[in-house]
Specification:
Elements: H1 3-11, E1 13-15, E2 19-21, H2 23-27, H3 32-45, E3 53-57, H4 62-72, E4 76-79, E5 91-98, E6 103-110, E7 119-127, H5 131-142, E8 146-156, H6 161-167, E9 172-182, E10 187-190, E11 204-205
Parallel strand pairs: 3-4, 3-7, 7-8, 8-9, 10-11
Antiparallel strand pairs: 1-2, 5-6, 9-10
Helix pairs in contact: 3-4
This protein binds guanosine-5'-monophosphate (5GP).
């Protein structure tokens, strides 16, 4: 298992409704050391890909996006989920159904922050049905830019987002891919990884 899978096994919990909760290092408190390692690994995986911008969606994508922006030394743009009263810029708008909040959100990026010369690395914390990522792809295309790659911290491989994006031909790298998980037994299995049970873990690995 890689360091992220180990961390998920040690610190994660599974909630009813196919939700993996990793609030103590990604979604509420941010473990800078783990995020730094994830950023280095994603940059290594995209080593042949040229980018000049990182794009994510508020809020939980911002941490990994910022660390990648630092490594590449490029601007980081985050799409907003609501229009702010103090912005008069015209905007690119798309829509995404939120897996966690069970509703459609509009997703906005102000036009000055994306343009036709941009080669964009899109990143996010979780990939489930691919709604959020497809909204970001739509926005890059509205701006006339190119999607150079998609970097994800945790892909839930039992949902369709990852397979759709790969079929569509996008270069997608996910640091951990959950193949199955069960909230009742608190068990999890990652793709392409030999099953392992950790002592003292909150989660156990499916046999
Ligand atoms: P998608 O748009 O791919 O269906 O869902 C991805 C978005 O939903 C992510 O931006 C993330 O915020 C949220 N999400 C989906 N599944 C999970 C999950 O299991 N745990 C957490 N913490 N967030 C999730």
């Amino acid at each position: 298992m890689n360091f992220l899978e180990e961390k998920i096994v040690t610190d994660g919990t599974i909630k009813q409704g196919n939700i993996l909760k990793i609030d103590n290092f990604l979604n509420h408190q941010i473990d800078i050391d783990i995020m730094r390692q994830i950023a280095y690994e994603l940059k290594r995986r995209f080593r042949n890909v040229e980018i000049n911008k990182v794009l994510t969606i508020e809020a939980s994508g911002i941490a990994i996006a910022t660390m990648l922006g630092d490594l590449y030394d490029v601007p980081v743009v985050f799409a907003k989920k609501s229009e702010t009263a103090n912005s008069t810029d015209s905007k690119y708008v798309s829509q995404a159904y939120s897996f966690t909040h069970k509703k459609y959100n509009n997703v906005f990026v102000s036009k000055p922050y994306l343009n036709a010369t941009d080669r964009v690395l899109i990143v996010d914390d979780f990939l489930a049905n691919g709604e959020a990522i497809h909204a970001l792809i739509d926005i890059v295309h509205q701006a006339g830019g190119q999607v150079a790659g998609i970097g994800i911290v945790v892909e839930k491989g039992q949902q369709e987002g990852g397979s759709k994006l790969r079929e569509e031909g996008y270069r997608l790298e996910s640091m951990a891919i959950v193949e199955e998980m069960d909230w009742e037994t608190q068990t999890i299995r990652f793709r392409h990884q030999p099953p392992r049970k950790l002592s003292g873990a909150n989660l156990s690995v499916l046999p």
